[in-house]
Design goal:
Keywords: CBS domain. The chain has a single domain, classed as CBS-domain. Helices cover about 30% and strands about 20% of the residues. The chain has helices at about 25-35, 55-60, 80-85, 100-110, 130-135; strands at about 20, 40-45, 45-50, 115-120, 120-125. The relative contact order is 0.23.
């Protein structure tokens, strides 16, 4: 295993994002259509938060039995904005941050995705799944 490998080698570079003005119905559709669990929230070019699928589940009345349905009752979603639900105090890493350093951050914190930001611009996202796949590739 290479100790200085940067996160840019394993991150997702084509990041699906939400605009802070989008609604939670849009977020749910993106989560399900792309089979993802974290979406950075942007305002213009600036990342201002991170929305996780778990965040949506916390505020909805839909349980896991309905995950495969396309038209889950979303009345609750209209009661909240993305900005009210998203995580705001983000820790980000640069694309040259080592995988080891990023793994240490994720191991110590209670979240499962890190935005990758270079010069103030979102360039990727690194998730615990990316790290697990990287480790599996080493064997």
């Amino acid at each position: 295993m290479k100790k200085r490998t940067p996160v840019s080698t394993i991150m997702t570079a084509n990041v699906i994002t939400l605009n802070h003005t989008d609604n939670l119905d849009t977020a749910e559709r993106l989560f399900k259509a792309n089979n993802i669990r974290h979406i950075p929230v942007v305002s213009g070019d600036e990342i201002i938060g991170m929305l996780s699928y778990t965040d949506l589940l916390r505020i909805s009345f839909a349980d896991g039995a309905y995950e495969e349905e396309e038209n889950v009752e979303t009345v609750v979603y209209n009661m909240f904005t993305i900005e009210q639900v998203m995580a705001k105090n983000l820790i980000s890493v640069g694309s040259h941050t080592t995988i080891k350093d990023a793994a240490e951050i994720l191991a110590k914190k209670e979240f499962h995705a890190l935005p990758v930001v270079d010069d103030g611009k979102l360039v990727g996202i690194l998730t615990t799944t990316d790290l697990i796949n990287y480790l599996l590739d080493q064997y």
